Amino acid sequence: MNTEALKALGLNDEQVKGVMALKGELIKQENAKLDAVSAERDSLNEQMAQRDKDIKDLKKNVGDNEELSGKLSELQGKYDTDTKALSEKLAATKLDSALGAALAKTKARDPQDLKPFLDMEAIKINDDGELTGLNDQITKLQESKGYLFDGGTQQGYNPAGGGTPKQPSNLAEAMQAKDFNFTEYLKQTQGDN
Predict the structure, then answer these.
(1) Phi/psi at 59 (nearest 5 deg)?
(2) Torsion of Cα atoms, 47 then 48 then 54 then 55, to 10°
(3) Can you tell me the distance from the alpha carbon of 182 to that of 193, in angstroms, rounded to the nearest whole number?
(4) In the structure, what pLDDT confidence band is assigned to residue 1 with cuts at 50, 70 and 90?
(5) Which of 18, 57, 84, 133 has a 20 to 30 A CA-CA distance from 139?
(6) Which residues are CB-contacts of 53 (< 8 A; sequence separation ≥ 6)?
(7) Would you give the end-to-end CA distance of the chain in angstroms?
(8) Which 3-state string (H, E, C) describes 110-143?
(9) How far apart are CA 102 and CA 126, in angstroms?
(10) What pLDDT sits at residue 6?
(11) Distances in Å between the alpha carbon of 28 and those of 39, 41, 42, 99, 105?
């Protein structure tokens, strides 16, 4: 799907832009999920390779039962530590992935710019993969740091006394201006000839 195909379907430029933005968000979400799964796969592959190596070493070094029991206890402790570290790493990856997907939906100009303003200790991911503690923080940021978010189509800004200067309606008014230039006045009133 590209902009030309959408225009061929009769969508106007604004609609095409909206559809492409939605497509971009979906791609970001799917990439975040893919990153989490890839990280999990890589961690499990590393763990399996290390266990295979340890088992091979254990078979080579089989001695009496006491030595074997000591090595098994040592390996069990190592595996427990590794498993805990991998679980924590996987949980952090899942949280980061879910956070990235959630921030992409906030209409932030750059979702990564929001992270320094978030209290990460208050943000948790539940068993359903939903984030808790984020919505309140985003609402507060939208109020206090609105410049980080795209407010949609904005009305033109016209400060009091601003705008286009009033053009003189006749030669007498034009001559009263301190920067009056007769040649420029003729060009404006009669056009370039």
Answers:
(1) -65, -35
(2) 150
(3) 15
(4) confident
(5) 18
(6) none
(7) 51
(8) CHHHHHHHCCHHHCEECCCCCEECCHHHHHHHHH
(9) 14
(10) 82
(11) 16, 20, 21, 11, 10
Give the tokens for residue 130.
């939903």
Q: How many CB atoms lie within 10 A of CB 15?
A: 13
Name residues whose C-beta falls within 8 Å of residue 136's C-beta, 6 or more positions apart in sequence.
none
For the record, the structure tokens of 123 come out as 């943000």
* Residue 64: pLDDT band with limits 50, 70, 90: low
pTM over 0.90: no
Q: Fill in the amino acid letter for 46.
A: E
Contacts of 47 (CB under 8 A, 6+ apart): 82, 83, 86
Side chain identity, residue 77: G
> Among all chains, which residue has been given the structure tokens 């254990």?
58
Q: Which of 111, 160, 152 is nearest to 134 (CA)?
A: 111
What CA–CA distance (Å, rounded) separates 180 from 167? Answer: 12
How many angstroms from the chain centroid is the CA of residue 190?
A: 55
N residues, the chain: 193
CB neighbours of residue 82 within 10 Å: 15
Question: What pLDDT, on the 0 to 100 scale, is given for residue 168?
Answer: 60
